[in-house]
Amino acid sequence: MLQIPISVKEQIIDQALRELPNEACGYLAGSGETVTAMIPMTNADQSPEHFSFIPAEQFKAVKEARAKGLDLIAVYHSHPQSPARLSAEDLRLANDPKMIYLVVSLMESEPILKAFRVVSKVSTEVLIQYTGSDD
């Protein structure tokens, strides 16, 4: 079960809305399956249908997480006009079985977040538990 602070969930949604019509993306850092930090990234593709990270930003994110004693535990991205599921391209590019892949869909009136683990190009949904106050 992926544990995400409500404040991080809200930051992911805010970034996804700000970056419309393109997909937003980034990393979630923490320990085990407990998220403690969000690291927004630039979508180098500037596309509403796919994303890729800028390698220099990826390297910086790894260094920042390690300096704080954290691991990169999830990659997140938004789907502006499609459901909160991994697309065929997402599955093709999901190469790290240790990583959790989170998708936020903006196609409904309320954003929907879902998380997945991918092993041998097969995805399995990971339950998300939101922690902290939503005041």
Offer a concise description of the structure.
With 135 residues, the protein is of the alpha/beta class.
Features:
135 residues; alpha/beta; Cytidine Deaminase, domain 2; 6-stranded mixed sheet; 3 helices; 8 strands
Radius of gyration: 14 Å
What's the mean pLDDT score?
93
Number of helices: 3
Q: For the record, what is the CATH homologous superfamily label?
A: Cytidine Deaminase, domain 2
CATH topology: Cytidine Deaminase, domain 2
Regions with pLDDT < 50 over 5+ consecutive residues? none
Describe the biggest sheet?
6 strands, mixed
Overall body shape: globular
Q: What's the count of strands?
A: 8
Task: Give an account of the 3D structure.
The two termini are 23 Å apart. The protein has a single domain, classed as Cytidine Deaminase, domain 2. With 135 residues, the protein is an alpha/beta fold. The strands form 2 sheets. The chain has a 6-stranded mixed β-sheet with strand order 3-2-4-5-6-7. A two-stranded parallel ribbon has the order 1-8. The radius of gyration is 14 Å and the shape is globular. It has 3 helices and 8 strands. It has helices spanning 6-18, 55-67, 88-93, and strands at residues 2-5, 25-31, 34-41, 71-79, 100-105, 112-119, 122-126, 128-131.
